[in-house]
Amino acid sequence: MSEQRTLQGLRADAETIFRAGIEAVDAQKAVARHLSLDGNNSELLVGTDIRISLSRTKRVFVVGAGKAAASMTAAVEDVICPVFLPEGVVNVKYGHTTPRPRFISLNECGHPLPDHAGVHGAGMIVGILDQLADTDLLLVLVSGGASALLPAPAAGVSLGEKQYTTDLLLRSGADIYELNAVRKHLSRLKGGQLAIRAGHATVVALILSDVIGDRFNVIGSGPTASDLSTFDDALNVLRKYDLVRSVPAAVVQRLVAGSRGEIPETPKSIRSNFHAVHNVLVGSNRLAIQSAAQTARTLGYNPLILSSTLQGETREVARMHVEILREVITSGNPVQMPAYFLSGGETTVTMRGSGKGGRNQEFALTAAIAAAGLPNVVILAAGTDGTDGPTDAAGAIVDGATQARAIAIGLSPIDHLNRNDSYPILDDLGDLLRTGSTGTNVMDLNIMLAVADAQQQSADS
Questions:
Q1: Residues 214 and 303 in one domain
Q2: Is-contact 127 144, C-beta < 8 A?
Q3: What is the Cα–Cα distance from 177 to 188, expressed in whole angstroms?
Q4: 46: how many CB neighbours lie within 10 A of its CB?
């Protein structure tokens, strides 16, 4: 890298590195790498070792849900259409409809809270599943957000009751595993139940992971994977967050009935019941991190990957990241400057106020406060899907001068943080990162850059 780099240059580098990570997990390209036809169009090749004969296939259906589902659907059509004209419906988040497929319908619906449009789309998917024959091929597309975007409330539970329960869990700081344990047991499709409903059709699920560990039974609440969680587990989540008396009575009644064995459990094994169910991972946070690290090397930084399985309370994790930066600046450990650190995963926010923001904006604001006065650092925290919470920002880019700039215009970063109100202050400072929909979703990326004094000019130079 050049001998001197402005603060604006560091910010530009951070965004370049972030976008390189996103490019590596572009959903359309990821599906194309894992799905193809053989030379004679007689077999569908899936992943590295799955070959599906098309000679006995009469119809191809495509269903699914997720923030990246539009891109995945378009890629599937590109592969399948030379042989079959696929039918189907895929639930996507409002506004996440590009690129739009030619034959398969996109149904826009709510995320992170499910809505009636999502229920309508899930109903159409159930209609497809119920007509499948053993000569049919079902392609299931799953990406981040699928849990909320595929709402099919179980008997006795209304959408409103499920919405309220989900909202309480999100506000209580429940992690994705806990949230999904409850959602699976309030659903007709989650936790392997979609695959069960497909009967003896051949099922291929193409999965873009947005969860730590890339576990099929967790991604999108595992609609095509056997479920390890139980009704007891779901009840224990409500007890852990003291929500048994707060959630709707119908929710508790269903979970208790299931715990007593009065309602069938989600399937604990699916392969023995079907001709074929194939779950294939097409992209993950780790792949994004590796590509981002390579770009950092190209830009002249000494990269160090901290973790691709990051989790925990957002504020605590952000402060830990800043302390690593501080150690590099003061001692040169664990890597020499110019240094680049990258982590990925999904942290959780315990709501203390009613402000506007998302976990990445909260991460960035916390880091800005902790890094106040450090002159040579930049921190980026953003969601790979381009949205962070119920906002139009992917996240934010901050530096050691962010807090001082805020105070200079009469804003208090600590007050905003205490209200979980990161969006307005970061917006006023021009520190929000807006990418628009990226067409992918593999959790979050956190990028930290640090350079020595001799390599950086002041922001005003």
A1: no
A2: no
A3: 18
A4: 19
Tell whether 443 and 297 lie within a shared domain. yes
Residue at 134 is within a domain: yes
Q: Domain check: are 11 and 101 in the same one?
A: no
In 3-state terms the chain splits into helix, strand, coil percentages (rounded to 5) of 40, 20, 40
* Model pLDDT, residue 269: 80
CB 250 within 8 A of CB 157: yes
The residues of the chain scoring below 50 in pLDDT are: 1-3, 272-273, 454-461
Quote the radius of gyration of the chain (alpha carbons, Å): 23
Please tell me whether residues 298 and 439 are part of one structural domain: yes
Asked whether the beta carbons of 212 and 284 are under 8 A apart, the reply is: no
Q: CA torsion angle for 408, 414, 415, 419 (degrees, to 10)?
A: 140
364-383, pLDDT tens digit by residue?
999 999 999 998 899 999 99
**Alpha-carbon dihedral of residues 407, 411, 415, 416, nearest 10 degrees?**
-120
pTM flag (> 0.90): no
SS3 state of residue 42: coil
Q: Per the structure, how many domains does the chain have?
A: 2
Half-sphere exposure of 263 (CA within 13 A, CB side): 18
For position 459, what pLDDT does the model report? 37
User: Using CA atoms, how far apart are residues 459 and 319, in angstroms rounded to an integer?
Assistant: 24
For residues 166-185, one letter each, b for 16 or more C-beta atoms within 10 angstroms of the residue's C-beta and e for the rest, the string is: bebbbbbebbbbbbbbbbbb
